Fold Diguanylate cyclase with PAS/PAC sensor.
Amino acid sequence: MGIDKEKELSIEAADLRREAEVRLQLKTNKRLQPRTDEEVQRLLQEFEIHEIELEMQNAELSLAQAELEKTLERYSDLYEFAPVGYLNLERNGAIRAVNLRGATLLGVERSSLIGRRFENFILEADRPVLTSYLSTIFTSKRKETCELTLLNQGAGPLIVQIEQIEALVDVLYPECRLAMIDITMRRRAEDALRDSEERMYRLAEMAVDAIIMMDECKSVTFCNTAAEKVFGFSAAEIIGRNFYQLCIPKRQLSPKKPGFDQFREEGTGPLIDRKTEVTARRKDGTEFPLEISLSSVKFQGKWHAIGIMRDVTEHNRLDLEIKDAREYAENIVETVREPLVVLNSELKILTANHSFYETFEVTAEETIDNFIYDVGNRQWDIPRLRVLIEKILPQDTVINGYEVEHDFPGIGRKTILLNARQIFREEIGSQIILLAMEDITDRKLAEERVKEISRQQQAILDNIPNAAWLKDKEGRYVAANGPYSKDLGMEPMDLVGKNDFDIFPPDLAEKYEKEINEVIRTGKRTSFDETRVDSKGKTLHLEKVKTPIFNDAGEAIGVIGIIYDVTASKEIEVTLRHESTHDILTGLYNRAFFDTELERLSRGRLFPLSIVMADINDLKRVNDTLGHSEGDKMIGLAARIMLEAFRSEDIVARIGGDEFAVLLPKTDRKVAEEAVERILRSPEVVNGEVTIAFGIACAEDEDHIAEALKASDERMYQDKSNRKKLQVGGSGESS
């Protein structure tokens, strides 16, 4: 269709050319007619005027062209340096043109983009979207958009919005111009907003208190599970209901400004983040007191009121009980074993219990209505007590464990632990201070003794060259020495108070817990073996000796553990065990191990059991002619060939000088024969470096093992004899 159009245009151009030539000929004929001087002069003047007109038009055209070029340059700059990516695509998605921002979004030099398929730069999952989009914009006049994910190697995946600018319809080369807008940050912000809202809803659902959200019309837009329980309605029944259908507030909701609702106390203005008590109605019609804390929040572009509510029925009941109990508690003061005094706001003693008088050897007359500092010949005028009562207590109102050490005249040096409470006493309308005292002098001495014992324990542990530690009966570390803590990469003091679950993986910690429980339960010193791989990859064999510690009553109260590195002895033991079961020359199992395994297999269920007997031919001749070292090499060669031919689970043993035996559990004779065939096809056997005679037999059960062993041995000797006859016969024929 395109070729026909070109031909048609060519024909029209040729016709136009011929008509122009005819007109030119006519003009030429007219110019050749004789003219008068006056006509010539007039024609010259017209020509000059026409020439000037052409020059003026040419100047105007030059100015217009320059202005057009400037405009084109400005628009080119706008196109090239626009913050939005522009690209022209063919119908098949090939890139025809792209601006600098578009190349940046694609992460490729612009010179390398022309002609490449746009789909190669987007996520594979989005390619069908692009195909559908291109099909739509080339067939529809509507402006279409879509979203794609670009595979930008430098900046990472980018989410872009593709918008159709225009479709450049050409019969031969149709293309479209698209705008690419990077919306990655917007998408991330939207995702973050959704995550934030999701977290908000989850937190609300997890909250113990009832939570509701109301819009500007006081309609409930959200409630959590706790609100359903409080009101007895389901969420579907609560949402959309007017707040006043659930509660009768003392303060009414009214807008502070359009779209902004808050609680407004009558005549006092708006309240924000204030608590109030309302009367709420349950689904069954019962009313109950509800404490509600209201605040305003902007959610999804609109102002909402959020109410956090708690049923205070029980709380109010408890307040009454507390009030009734207060008097009862004051009566109990007299029965408290520890010294206790009650002070008023002027620090005069209102009351004191019997223990106070007895401990500090003062009377009621010397105490009541006196300043605390004047009691007992001013023995309570203690600087640290003044700091507690005059500076600390007014700010904190509650003080626990405030330690005071002082020499009391006639009593001696005491360490007193003070617990203080500042209370507003409603019945007398003033502040009172409860001051309880605990004599911890003996306890402090005991603690010092414990610290001294701990230091002694630590010194003992530190002088043990092996890794050592001390635990209580709950498995908590009491002390550890340097080698043990260094092995764990911790300081000794960092271990104190921790248990094995704080340090080791769960499976290992559970194992250690069982070990210490066993030692505590049995009350016996116990050894435990452990294998560990150190940081250099070396396998360590450890012996952990754990010994119980008893108190005076004979009860196990802890465990002391010492770790011994027995790697060297274990390695020696493994070496000796290997040497006792293996042949030194070949590394194969020896005769003793073979007999033991044969006995073990006879009692098992690994039948059928195939037995292969083997013997090296001409070993004696090699020993006699070439020496025993060459014979040993032949034995080693035969051993290697046999070991490679059989499976790892087969027992390959050297049972004599040139004799070998193989046990193949759960194997029939055919598999054993295939293994022997592999040996006979080995290059060393084929080349004559070594020759081996074989005998194979199979025992189907334990009753036929002895028979199979004998049969395999006889067949081996028969094979050996046959080979000798072949050698003799062969020599005769060759000679």
Summary: The two ends are 95 Å apart (CA to CA). The chain has six domains: 2-51, 81-182, 191-311, 318-439, 445-570, 582-733. The CA atoms of residues 231 and 285 lie 10 Å apart.
